[in-house]
Queue: 2 jobs
Job 1
Amino acid sequence: MEKNLRICIIGGGPAGLSAGMYLEQKGYENYTILERQDRVGGKCWSPTYNGRRYEMGAIMGVPSYYAVHDVEEFCGITHDGPKLNRNYKNSQGQVIEPFEPKKNLLKIPRLLKMKKQVKLFGELLESKYKGYDVNGHRGVAEGRYEGFSQQSAKREPVSGENPNLKDLALPFKEFCRINNVDLVQDIWIGPYTSFGYGYFDEIPAAYVLKYLDFQTTMNFVKVNLWTWKNGTQYIWEQLNEHLKHPARLNSTIEKVERRGGKVYVTVNGQVEEYDKIIVTAPLYIPNKRADGQVGMVDYFDTRDDERALFSKIDYERYDVQAVLTKPEDHPEISYYVFDNMVPQRLGHLMVYYRRWKDQIDQVITTYALRKHRDSEEIPYEKCRQMVQDDLKTMHNPAREVINEWSVYYFPHVFSEDYASGWYDKVEAMQGKYDTFYAGEIMSFGDMDETAEYSRELVERFF
Ligand SMILES: Cc1cc2nc3c(=O)[nH]c(=O)nc-3n(C[C@H](O)[C@H](O)[C@H](O)COP(=O)(O)OP(=O)(O)OC[C@H]3O[C@@H](n4cnc5c(N)ncnc54)[C@H](O)[C@@H]3O)c2cc1C
């Protein structure tokens, strides 16, 4: 493509900013990033309390976050945050050690079986499901893999046929069942459901395993994780500062029209002309959101194929509260509550995060899901109260809530749409209306998968 193409990027989160970086590195310098908020980072939101930044959104990375590492190198920063650590409690608030055989004599057979299944699962993923961990979902529903290997920072192009990959459309629970490895869910659930990505009986295995590939899961098990002292938002603030064209904040896009090979974007009342547009903002939001956020189908001259496909997207209702406690009620560490990570305990506290170990006058953040595909959504206020009650049960009651949000989280499609080739249909539309689709839905809802998808989009089409 012509290097002086005028490219509009919607969204100044990880996907949009990294698209700017990779375009710039490839010689495309005529790009504009439009961000609707007064800050960059999107779901990487790290406000300050008492002189330190806490996390309302993304918290951590793993050593295989190659795209995030590209950004770190581009900006000359590193993952210099506090070491993560956690313990476990049951739903009655008692500290437990679910993986320690000596503390669970009756569970020893199950723990041994689980260990065996984890090993077997690792082997299955490498052999039967070869190609499962490629970023994005191209070809999976047809039994192919196509993309860039995530096994090393080189990210070599890879492709091949593997009919077994079609199994990845199944809900993860079913996927484990057909492979006789049900117990691996005990390990995968910690960094999956409690991080807001839904329940194993509803979410296609593809999402679970592209995010939690074997290597990444083992990094979680060994707590080999990255954090950033100034928060994950800092990564994207730094990137924004280092880009030739930082994001234009407070950009309200009223209309996008695509005609005659040009893209006309009406932003803050002015019409701007571009040659191509990359959308990293939500494509579709099924119901009206309290924060006024809308999907692209609402402000674009959307075509029938875009509307038909994007209306299949659902998302998680994932709520975060930032609370203060009395000093004597401050938790000594972060806690996972496995009992609450099942659909029957929808709306309950699944995890709470103590970020700063050396300071008790700091924020604790809480996490809960309040929607499962097969049940009614729990209203926001009710879930908020349930979490507060749970904190009391955990012996760490909140004194005050100082921040909260219910975020548009982890857009995804369900098994039937995944299996019928939703991703290949959307991939076939890339560029069709001078429009490219990126961001979470195209890969997975974490910082690295989204930034990596932007890297590959630039590699493939520009
Ligand atoms: C509570 C929580 C915990 C998380 N934990 C982790 C974690 O530990 N590790 C991890 O890797 N990831 C984590 N994530 C996920 C990660 O933050 C997201 O996957 C990532 O930020 C997605 O990047 P994105 O650019 O695709 O989308 P977003 O971050 O959502 O950015 C999209 C941007 O587009 C802007 N936008 C939207 N609509 C418009 C419009 N119409 N016009 C202009 N701009 C628009 C938004 O304001 C936003 O800035 C977490 C997220 C949350 C909320």
Job 2
Amino acid sequence: MPKVVLFDADGVVVRPRQKYFSEKYAQDYNIPLEQISPFFKTEYKKAATGQEDIKSLLPSYLKEWGWTKTVDEFLAYWFESEKDLDTQLLRVVANLREKGVKCYLVSDNEKYRGQYLMQTVGLADKFDGAFFSYQLGVTKSNSGFFSQILENLSVEPQDTIYWDDDPKNVASATTLGISAFVYDDFGEFIRKLDELFPKEMQGFMAFDTEDFYCDMVFSGKVQVKKVRETDELLAFYHTRPSWTHHIVVVPKKHVKTLTEVQDMGLVKRIFELIKEIILEYGWANTNFKIINNGGSFQDSKHLHFHLLSGEKIR
Ligand SMILES: [Zn+2]
């Protein structure tokens, strides 16, 4: 069974961009593309392989490109335009990790965007780690990129799988014996996983849902350890706890998110149940917190409250 899965960032984990940033900038700032693209074809590569700091390379170009604000503001504007995550794929990553398969991000990127993806976008929490070209000194088209990863993780190429949307990078990993595939679409990716992993893992991976509770918990596909149950509500232990005590409370009837709740009595009843659990477990005297997420913070699009106590474990 494969031990390690490597995921390309841009185009796989981060949804494919509509256009290159250079094209976007050219359009937004009404500048000919020919004036911008040379930087990305030459100078940018030095930053991507860690030879130069992009903040020292950019100033002279930015002047030429009509950017009047700071270098940091330029990077913020750039990074902001390329951070749309594929939540469906990330759910599969979470499933793989839960089954003990290590998942790593591998990416050609310079330092600041690498850090942005990991910390600001939050990918550090979703993977076991990341390998960036700025750290390894070579980009993915050089097989040295992958040999360093294999060495670092002490894993054999035949136990390693890799997805990238660029055939050139896939070819480079293949030369080392890694099972590498071009990422085209989610369905194809799932079918390939089904081939590569033993049967008992397949069902759990082959779902494409934005609603874990309706599609996985209430459908019975995933078994959960129940804490409390009423006609209306279910409280159960989180399947991947991030606190020593991590309980999720959900209404059985589908409601997408807090702002779509019609009957606020539902929220009152959820909190009454949460209060009972807190009192029963004695957390009123130790510690507890309740979290509800919305918008891009909400991974599963079905109203749910996290009840946490103890210590953060990951
Ligand atoms: Zn639902």
